[in-house]
Amino acid sequence: MNWPKFWGQFCEAIDKSSIAPITKFTYVLELLEPKIKRCIEALPFTPEGYNRAKAILEDKYGTESEIVKCYVKEILDLPHITGTNPRKIAEFHEKLTHSVQALETMGILKMGILRLNDHARYIHSYTYCH
C-alpha cells in the first residue's frame, strides 16, 4: 500500500468531510489492507475509537521517517536493467521519478544526500538483519 497517497486521499475525501466519525471509522476499516487494519480493528466503534485509530495509524505509518524509508526502499528495490528494452527502461524511469519527486516534495533531497544515505543504510541493514 502506498501509505502517503492513501492517507492523503482518505483525509481529503473522508476525514475532512462532515461525515459522522463512526462512519469514517467504517470507511477506514474497509479500505485498509488486513495487515494494517489489525492494529486498529479492536478499538471501540465510537468517535473516540476513530480518533484513536487515526492517531495510531499516523504514529505507525505517517511519520516522516517511515515515509522516507518506504520511498528509499522503492528506489533500492528497482530492478537492474540489462539490455536496451525501451519498455523496461520506461518503467524503471517512471518508478524512479515517482519516488524521487515524492522525496523532493517532502524536502528530503534538499536536506542533502547524506541524510538520504542514512535512510538507505538503515533500510539496507534492516533488510539483511531481519
CA-CA gap between termini = 21 Å
The amount of helix comes to over 70%
Largest sheet: none
Low-confidence stretches: 123-130
Instruction: Write the element-wise H/E pattern from the N-terminal end onward.
Output: HHHHHHH
Secondary structure: number of strands = 0
- What would you call the shape? elongated
Q: Please indicate the count of domains.
A: 2
- Give the helix/strand class: mainly alpha
Instruction: Return Rg in Å.
Output: 18 Å
Instruction: Estimate the strand proportion.
Output: under 5%
- Average predicted confidence as pLDDT: 82
General description of the model:
Helix 5 (64-76) crosses helix 7. The chain has two domains: 3-62, no CATH class; 77-128, no CATH class. It is an all-alpha fold. Mean pLDDT is 82; it is low at 123-130. The longest helix has 20 residues, at 86-105. The protein is 72% helix and 0% strand.
